[in-house]
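Page 37, top half.
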Amino acid sequence: MEVRKQYQIEITNRFAALENLSDGENINKAWENIKENIKTIAKDSLGLQELKQHKPWFDEECLGFLDQRKQALKQWIHDSRQSSVDNLNNVRREASRHFRGKKKKEYLKVKVGELETNSKIKNIRDLYRGISDFKEGYQPGTNIVKDEKGDLVADSHIILAR
């Protein structure tokens, strides 16, 4: 709690210093300092929230395939000969085989095994929760806001301005 008060005092001092700035001094640098202090306070008091991973089977090996695919794409953009096109197609094919064929199928087999054990030990809540995860899949969230007229707005820039 004392750290929080110390940060609050520091931010108050920074705002006071910002009001006393003359035109010649760098206002942008002062605002950057204030922004960093606010982020630090928020991080210390609230903590960081871990994002939910929607693809738990995606690991370091998958990242390697993804990097290979990006490199092949960059090579094809710089050099559009037939050999680079063939290389890009081969790398894409191998990456998709790895993603869909190996990693995802292994993950799904494990999940089905968990559902079977939940069924055998009569753990009904986890069984139905797992089944609904399979049926629904990943549902991305949408950010929709109403504007002044009452119309729905989904554009991120307009939402931010609102």
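Page 37, bottom half:
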Amino acid sequence: MGRDLEPKENYDFVQLSRAYLKDWRQLSIRHPLAAGVLMYLVENMGRTTNAVICSYKTFQEVTGYSRPSIARAIKVLKEENWVDTVKVGSATAYCVNERVAWQAARNQRKYAIFSATVIASENEQEDGYNEKARQSLQYIPVIKTGEQAIVSSEDLPPPDQRDLTE
């Protein structure tokens, strides 16, 4: 009786096709690093595109393997159609095969519209990144309903109490 029949968002789980589980198990035996990279992508993929933008350096940090090892693992994943790649400038988006794993309802999946989860390693950022991250960004005021912007280059007097209480 108290059951909520409204559709729930699928934020906390990923769905896997049973048809690919045996192949995934075989991948983990033949190419453990490739299976680990695939699992990392599935853990972090976007809700509707199954896409993740991630650098080789980040893959290296996460797995502890060298760049050539990561490249071989990604090559296996591409050759065996576990993932596809899309170039986005100098970055690469890794798109997990949506027949294997997905998060959104099947009728909501899209391929490359293009939103993706972007994973940026702290070690890849410019010098002073941590210091800059603690600084406040420029404030851009938002005009709310009923408010009016004053666009002028002339100096205006400060408001008095009557302006504030009206």
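Margin note: The longest helix spans residues 18-30.
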